[in-house]
Amino acid sequence: MELTPAMKQYQEMKKQNPDCILFFRIGDFYEVFFEDANICHNVLDLVLTSKNKWAENPIPMAWIPHHSIDKYIPKLIQHWYKVAIAEQITDPKPWKLVQREITQIITPWTYIQEWTKNFNYMLAITRKELSSWEIYHLAWWDFTLGEYQTKSFSNLWDAQKRILTLSPTEVIIDIDFPEKDSISTPIQQYLQCLISVYEVPVDPDSFLCNMAKVQTLSSFWQAVGEWRLQAIALLLHYIRHVQQQNLANISKISYHAQTGFVLMDEITIKNLEIFSSSYENNQQYSLFWILDQTKTSAWARLLHYYLANPINSLSEIQRRQNLISHYQEIDSSKFILKKLSDTFDLQKLTSSILYKKLSPIPFLKLRSTLDLFFRWDEESFVMLNELKLLWLSENEESQLKSLYESLKNMLKSDQEVMDGDYFIAEWWNGEVDELRKIAFHSDDLLLQYQQFLVQQSWVQNVKLKFVMNQWYFIELTTKDSVQFEEKLWIWNWNQEDERLNLYRRNTLKWNQRYSSTYLEKLQENIITSREKLTKLENDLLKEMWEKIWDKNAEISAFAQKIAELDVFCSHAVFAFENRYIQPEMNNKNLIEIVWWRHPVIEAYLPTDQQFIPNDLSIWEKDNHEKEMIHIITWPNMWWKSTFLRQSALIVLLAHCGLFVPATSAKIWIVDGIFARVWSGDVIAKNQSTFMTEMIEVSNILNNATSQSFIIFDELGRGTSTYDGLALTSAILQYVLKHVKAKTLIATHYHELIKLEKMYPEVKNYSVSVYETDKEVLFMKKIVKGWASKSYWIDVAKIAWIPDEILKLSREILKWFEAKQAESNSHTQIISTPLFEIQNNDSKYQEKYEKIQRIITQADLNNMTPIQAIQFLAKIKDELENDS
């Protein structure tokens, strides 16, 4: 089938953007064709029709009115589609093809939603191959914030972990990246995000200088060094392609260094349920949900950033704590929060102004927010002084005040703009006032001109008339025209007044019709005034747009100060109402928390129940006396995850500079928080439960230091009892000897309590249990000492397992215990150092000590594979040798 020129134009644009749904402007509609039409039919519930429906192969088609597009785009974005908008750039003319071009590409990442509280990251990844290894470079940013960061990784695994932690909406892969599936497949297994492929610009150095409007990249230093320039250039190159314009809000490009931050990987964030709960897999039961008492989305994002990026800078932690204390002490905190609830998200608002279709509404919202701080009344003075306390500079204050005054004077009131089509205030621009007078008060102007002619001619019957095909004209009777011409005709030659430049247009039987230079101009102005007024108002709004472009850095800094005001003030009120206290941070290797609670569970307890608080003391003294590892044995499945997670959450909150739910708290500055809790199969990666657990443990052992805090909620659960017990014991001894991190472990392996006798740094704890002949009560209180048994049948009883099963379980348990006792009486066991050697025969004791010496003296780290096999053969020979 022969395609029309318009359809050929459509297909050419579609080839340029094959991964987008192309909305093709035709007159008053946006039309979609082929597979795009089918998608829109299914997702948007549009009527599916066809172009050339009587042809042999009709083209599927759907359409929407051009003014309704904003209603449909969010639905496509929610289904993870990109949308390209092709607009008409020339007026329709007979027998000529209307020129069109892609004016915007909208993705889930670039779609600005002012209400969202989450970061909306886009990330680019490049790869640099060196002589003997590869380096992976990442660059990422949130479209609405304008702050870019870069980082490099020596292996793909670490790069993927960082990507999972950031959870970007879209990932851009360098077109030259080999084996793209190696990066895209694992990401899509864990994240719901778009994967796009794009090229690095030919000259990334010049490209970045042009985009950032700088002469040299030296000011970005480490951020673009070591080939990270390629990653940030790829990111910006793709963004410019999507936005079809240069970027205005590049406020910062920095290298993401771990210095100053507490290490916390994506597994720990997930296990501690900081942003999403495992229960129903949503935010509602997360730590962020409980703490988020902020008033707008911008300020909630700052709290999100604090929780995701805890710090170990004592001075910054204390600065945040002091600000929270300040807002607890002053009386105006609730007043400040009430005022902040009326503000808009300045950062997203600015992005809407700079990147969305020009509209006065975002400008009104910007003015409304600035009005709270620059209105020059007592309330605005209070708000502005609080920002100065947060280090608002004089330059930022001056720039924003100037912008506010311009917006206040330029725009009409909010209600006037909402009720009408025009938005420039009176007296702001003389030309606007004149056009508005002509457009909306033309009858007054015509009447004034008619009265002027009457006065000049002394003829009372001068009439101004309008006929559709003749427009405006002056009409008099033939009799009156004689006096009219006698009085005014001579002035036509002596005066420069356009109102008197008259000429005769038509002669009728009883009348004469006249016109003038002034009337022709007035006529033209009346006809075109509204069109000119709309254009002029948009031009003035564009001038204000340019001012905001120039002041974007100051607006971003101002927004950051408001965000801090909201976070600290909100948390101060929340902490006071929920009995949170300011922790005392120290460098003395001491974590001592008294009567502390789990912030999430406490919030959701019924009103007639109270959370049972506990204490934690783990320390290291100058005389080398230590309490480094707590082994917590208790009834299976009873309160252990709560205790461990609340331990890590308290440490996390303290390192965010926030208050904690406790009576008192002394918390040591750590460099990492690691949490490993119950694992499950990862089917997509072909990983069993046990393999997943071991990978997580390996990550902790490789990254934790003596300054870290670790929680292990069960180890060795995915394998046999003795394998799991041996591994757990070995892991704890490795942590104690090599990692030396402060560690809490909850375990069902009661045999581990013997580690306390072997190592003074290890202490046993358990859940207090009150047991009678009739019932067992779990007190939810952590006490020193070990649990004598697991109470798993009693836990099953609480869970309403049928009595028949419980009775049979007890009988089977007794049978197993009897068989174990019988086996132990006949079996000679050589155990690990965790257990006593039950056979005291000197032959076995001597053999055991000899093998122990061989293993202890071996340099396992430097063995080759062949040497390792030979070493195992030597041990085997010793075991088989009875001499």
Please describe what this structure looks like:
The protein is an alpha/beta fold and 883 residues long. 47% of the residues lie in helices and 19% in strands. It has a six-stranded mixed sheet, sandwiched between helices. It is elongated, with a radius of gyration of 38 Å. The relative contact order is 0.06.
Please state the CA-atom Rg, rounded to the nearest Å: 38 Å
Order of strands, main sheet, comes to: 3-4-2-1-5-6
Shape: elongated
Main sheet properties: 6 strands, mixed
Beta content: 15-25%
So how many helices? Answer: 32
Return residue spans where pLDDT drops below 50 for at least 5 consecutive residues. Answer: 827-840
The helix/strand class is alpha/beta
End-to-end Cα distance, whole Å, is 94 Å
Total count of strands: 27
Q: Could you estimate the helical fraction of the residues in percent? A: 40-55%
Labels describing this entry:
single chain, 883 residues, alpha/beta, 6-stranded mixed sheet, 27 strands
SSE diagram, text form:
Elements: H1 5-16, E1 20-26, E2 29-33, H2 34-44, E3 49-51, E4 59-65, H3 69-78, E5 82-88, E6 100-106, E7 121-129, E8 134-142, E9 147-153, H4 156-166, E10 170-174, H5 181-190, E11 194-198, H6 204-212, H7 228-243, E12 252-255, H8 266-271, H9 287-291, H10 297-308, H11 314-329, H12 333-340, H13 346-355, H14 360-374, H15 378-389, H16 394-410, H17 414-419, H18 430-440, H19 442-457, E13 463-467, E14 471-477, H20 478-488, H21 491-494, E15 502-507, E16 511-516, H22 517-550, H23 552-577, E17 584-586, E18 590-596, H24 599-604, E19 614-620, E20 626-627, E21 629-633, H25 640-655, E22 664-668, E23 672-676, H26 689-703, E24 708-713, H27 721-739, E25 742-747, H28 755-758, E26 762-771, E27 776-784, H29 792-798, H30 803-826, H31 842-857, H32 865-880
Parallel strand pairs: 1-5, 7-10, 9-12, 10-11, 17-22, 21-25, 21-26, 23-24, 24-25
Antiparallel strand pairs: 1-2, 2-4, 3-4, 5-6, 7-8, 8-9, 13-14, 14-16, 15-16, 18-19, 18-22, 19-20, 26-27
Helix pairs in contact: 4-5, 6-7, 10-23, 11-23, 12-23, 13-14, 14-15, 14-16, 16-23, 18-22
